[in-house]
Amino acid sequence: MCNSRVVLISSILLLFVFLIGCADRNDSPAAQTYPNDGNNLALAWVLKGDYQVAKSFYDLPKDVRIAILPEPPADRMAEPNEPFNSTDCIAKDYPSRRFITGGFSKDYAFVFYEHGGLGYNQPFVILKRKGGKANIILLKYFFGENGTMSLDQLKSYLKSGKPPCIVHESNEFRSL
């Protein structure tokens, strides 16, 4: 059971992280270069929409699912609108992640989901698929968004170059 002091301290810390991460986000290098980088074929692929949309985490190919939740999974992925643990106060035996949307083709896949815990966030992951394996090539964490975004809203944010507060962004993953 969570006591009120822990909840208060956690809330203050989350607010502090959110305020620091969101301050002047339109002037940050990430906001200026994301996603208008013409060399990012994977991001262009997501915006173009040349993929099969997955309505369920389990509609994604197995190589993609394993890259997101390695087997045996320490946790599972809740489906859209299913309950999940969105905070660090664990309720029942719900997973700590909930699928929002995803898509896949022969060469790429993307997954967008909610991740609960002390720092609730919405990871957006693009994976390169090759030889029966999927490796993460782009990962962006969305913080501070109230509720989840639809695929159209996500694409709109990505296309505008001004997505909701991005606190962490990484393109440094091993290639296939």
Topology:
Elements: H1 4-22, H2 29-33, H3 41-48, E1 52-54, H4 62-68, E2 77-78, E3 97-104, E4 108-115, E5 122-130, E6 133-142, H5 151-160, E7 166-170
Parallel strand pairs: 2-3
Antiparallel strand pairs: 1-3, 3-4, 4-5, 5-6, 6-7
Pick out its properties:
single chain; 176 residues; alpha+beta; 7 strands; 28% helix
Describe the structure.
- By secondary structure, the chain is an alpha+beta fold.
- It has one domain (4-170).
- Helix content is 28%, strand content 26%.
- Strands 1, 2, 3, 4, 5, 6 and 7 form a seven-stranded mixed beta sheet that branches.
- The longest helix has 19 residues, at 4-22.
- The chain is globular.
- It starts with a helix and ends in a 6-residue tail after the last strand.
- Residues 13-39 and 172-176 have low confidence and may be disordered.
Helix tally?
5
End-to-end C-alpha gap: 44 Å
Low-pLDDT runs of 5+ residues are 13-39, 172-176
What number of domains? 1
